[in-house]
Amino acid sequence: MATTGLQHVAAMYAGVVAPPLIVGAAIGLSAADLTFLTGACLFTAGLATFLQTIGVWKIGARLPFVNGVTFAGVAPMTAIAASTHDKSDALPIIFGAVMVAGLLGFVAAPVFGKAVRFFPPVVTGSVITLIGVSLLPVAFGWAQGPVPTAPDYGSETNLGLAAATLLIVLLLRRFTRGFVKQIAVLLGLVAGTVVAIPFGVTDFGPVADADVIGFPTPFHFGAPQFQLAAIVSLCVVMVVSMTESTADMLALGEIVERPADERTIAAGLRADTLGSALSPLFNGFMCSAFAQNIGLVAMTRVRSRFVVAVGGGFLVLMGLCPVAASLIAVVPRPVLGGAGVVLFGSVAASGIQTLVRAGLDKDNNILIVAVSLAVGVIPITAPDFYHAFPQTARIVLDSGISTGCVTAVVLNLVFNHLGHQRDAQDVTHPMEAGEEIAAAR
What we know:
α1 crosses α2, α5 (121-144) packs parallel to α16 (363-376) and α10 (228-255) crosses α19 (400-416). The chain has helices spanning 2-27, 31-53, 74-83, 90-115, 121-144, 156-175, 178-182, 184-196, 205-209, 228-255, 262-278, 292-300, 305-319, 322-330, 333-356, 363-376, 378-381, 391-397, 400-416, 424-427, 429-440; strands at residues 67-69, 287-289. It has one domain (2-440). By secondary structure, the protein is mainly alpha-helical. Helices cover 71% and strands 1% of the residues. It is globular and about 65 Å long. Residues 422-441 have low confidence and may be disordered. The longest helix is centred in the middle third of the chain and has 28 residues, at 228-255. The protein has a two-stranded antiparallel sheet.
């Protein structure tokens, strides 16, 4: 149980630590605060995993699900950080929005399973693709260096380290099997850090300064603040997250030969949303099921939810050990950039995989995808596109994921629901989406 539980942690570790690194860098946190934020996200991921696997009352799907920080919230949270004049208020505003979105999602969980038909693969595929595309510029920025104003920003050394890390990850994925293949990204980060040592870009200061034992002090970054635009933005993310979790539960239910019914989906969504609502108390972000671990369950055939619960225990212990959390702060930013290309690119690829099954032979669905992606990439390709809008509105508009999701949902309603009879392919979408996400990740 210990080794297989640890394998689940290894398969999703890079995915858990990446969001706090991105958001923390956008806010300009110090190395110590970045370590604290990373540890808090590990700790809350463990608590959310306990809720999902062990369950309490009607909370928890009681399936072998690993929960952690969702990528869907990264772009909106960085947009919130960018629009906040006083950076010390950024995290409190984000935490307040996550708490409200989590509580609203918890209330909506029982009816969401019935409404999921409005989120077929043409919608979820577009949104997941936008998540990956929105995060790729972050990886490119990391590859150039930590500080844009530094003399070595974009230097041959930094780009070379990023390329070397990317090459290591690709070689591991191509020529290894099993457990080593599953943790190729993690091994690539370690190898890239070792390669970077002779170039003097590796800083072991965060490890030396970190305590062996610590606790994520509640509201370490300040009491939560509630800003309407931020709440709306992360409520959209919560809808996206719940949609993806529903597809994941359906896929995993088939793998473990326990098909997820409406009650299971509602209980699983309650665990996701309650974990998200409680996470900011310990300085964590929005939580969601990690689809990459579904592939691990299918590969190993270890279907016990208690094994995954042990993995959740490891996450909690890592969150209570600042030294463990500080290790990721040692990794040079260019090395993270090289691994991020694979990590974020795979998210976009999983969205494309979902779109393959979305019935793109229909003109209506082609239009939905085309317009949704076009609207979603506006903040990436034209960052000043909404410069004339109020600052509060830009928190939502500058998030391509939020605007792309709303566009996809509205267009899907107009073209495929209002006045039209849905065909069989659309009806069976949740399982198809879940299978594609699990296979791609």
